[in-house]
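ingest -> fold -> write
write: protein_1
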Amino acid sequence: MKLSPSVHQDKNDIDSEEKEHGEEIEVDEDALPSRAAAIHEEMAKRS
């Protein structure tokens, strides 16, 4: 999925259907797991 050169993309941007269609992606940061919880979940998957 390629963006047109006229669209500025910084290092944290990712390609997505929403971005292609110009739709805003809303993220509820309070609902995201903590970094520690994410690490714990990843370790649990590996064991």
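write: protein_2
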Amino acid sequence: MGNWMAWYHNAKVSEEHRIDATELMPHEDVVETSFEEEAMKRRQRQQ
């Protein structure tokens, strides 16, 4: 929901007033590793 709200807001304001979706989702933590990094870790463990 926060991602959609940020997209909607950002479509209506200038670039200097845009917000990041995580600003609207205070319950979300910053991801330590990306999906790709986690996939590579799993792949290396399987080999």
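write: annotation protein_2
Residues 3 and 21 are 5 Å apart (CA to CA).
The helical segments are 2-12, 35-46.
pipeline exit 0
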